[in-house]
Task: inverse folding
């Protein structure tokens, strides 16, 4: 029987009470740790099975952010590492890998802020979309370094994550202007750099992020405005190396409009879109800045991928190295 706390975390991810690709990943790691601590089973085999069941529930919540399966993959590697060990050791391994993931993830967000802030100059007007911890980490770090910057944030309809970004930025004292999503091209010439997060990055460097990101990238490209993506290396999607497409989540149309009032109206509500690598100038990761075309090399290294092998996700490779 699945623990009520796990069901609650899964439900919170689904309904976006827990949202943002990094937060979702950490919540999944935390859920696995809770499941391990509170497990009532008696044998290692039953424990492995229970961890797989919990993972399945978490994986079914939201399909696009690869940070979720990557976090699970990272924690569950503990089951292989502790293979043949007693139940207590297995539980301990899962708990410590979950703790490791959470710690490394938080460190990565900080490191991305430091690395990315080096590319921000005093006087820059930055545009951000949705609410990305990593993108905001760069902006806040640059501001804390004393750089005189301004931020334009979109509303990010239909869930309005732009309001979260605006609140966070204002709390830091950063001058912030909000615009509607469709006003980006109108204002793009006032912008020096666009900084967004990512939910998944494919092996060819294509960036999957909040719906509207690709239109912003197109407008930035046209106006020759730099387009930065900020993402931890666990946002790189290992299966895209062998041709898997990233599934784009379509959410409830009622997030956009009350369908009861418009009988017969068809509404589409994709939560994400894909920005081709041609429109991305650089990706800031905790391991350093890379061009989008280096995504392949990152995936190969982080996941120890070799032809014919499935992806692994090891402890050492996740640690910030720069
Ligand atoms: P961090 C969010 O997705 C946004 O698309 C954001 O850019 C991305 O996750 C990355 O966020 P949603 O959960 O991990 O709001 O940088 O649909 O916070």
Result:
């Amino acid at each position: 029987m699945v623990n009520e706390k796990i069901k609650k975390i899964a439900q919170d991810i689904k309904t976006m009470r827990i949202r943002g690709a990094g937060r979702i990943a950490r919540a999944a790691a935390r859920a696995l740790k809770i499941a391990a601590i509170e497990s009532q089973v008696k044998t290692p085999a039953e424990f492995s099975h229970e961890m797989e069941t919990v993972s399945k529930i978490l994986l079914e919540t939201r399909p696009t952010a690869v940070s979720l399966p990557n976090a699970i993959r990272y924690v569950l590697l503990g089951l292989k590492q502790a293979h043949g060990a007693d139940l207590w050791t297995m539980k301990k391994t899962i708990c410590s890998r979950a703790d490791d993931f959470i710690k490394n993830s938080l460190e990565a967000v900080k490191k991305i802020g430091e690395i990315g802030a080096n590319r921000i100059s005093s006087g820059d007007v930055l545009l951000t979309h949705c609410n990305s911890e990593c993108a905001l980490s760069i902006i806040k770090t640059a501001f804390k370094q004393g750089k005189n910057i301004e931020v334009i944030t979109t509303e990010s309809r239909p869930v309005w994550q732009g309001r979260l970004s605006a609140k966070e930025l204002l709390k830091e004292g950063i001058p912030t202007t909000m615009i509607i999503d469709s006003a980006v091209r109108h204002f793009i010439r006032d912008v020096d750099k666009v900084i967004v997060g990512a939910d998944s990055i494919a092996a060819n460097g294509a960036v999957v992020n909040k719906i509207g990101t690709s239109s912003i990238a197109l407008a930035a490209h046209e106006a020759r405005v730099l387009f930065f993506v900020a993402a931890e290396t666990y946002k790189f999607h290992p299966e895209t190396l062998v041709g898997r497409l990233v599934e784009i989540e379509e959410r409830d149309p009622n997030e956009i409009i009350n369908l009861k009032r418009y009988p017969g109206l068809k509404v589409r509500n994709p939560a994400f879109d894909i920005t081709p690598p041609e429109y991305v100038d650089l990706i800031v990761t905790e391991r350093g800045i890379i061009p989008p075309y280096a995504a392949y090399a990152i995936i190969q290294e982080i996941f120890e991928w070799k032809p014919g092998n499935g992806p692994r996700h090891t402890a050492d490779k996740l640690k910030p190295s720069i």
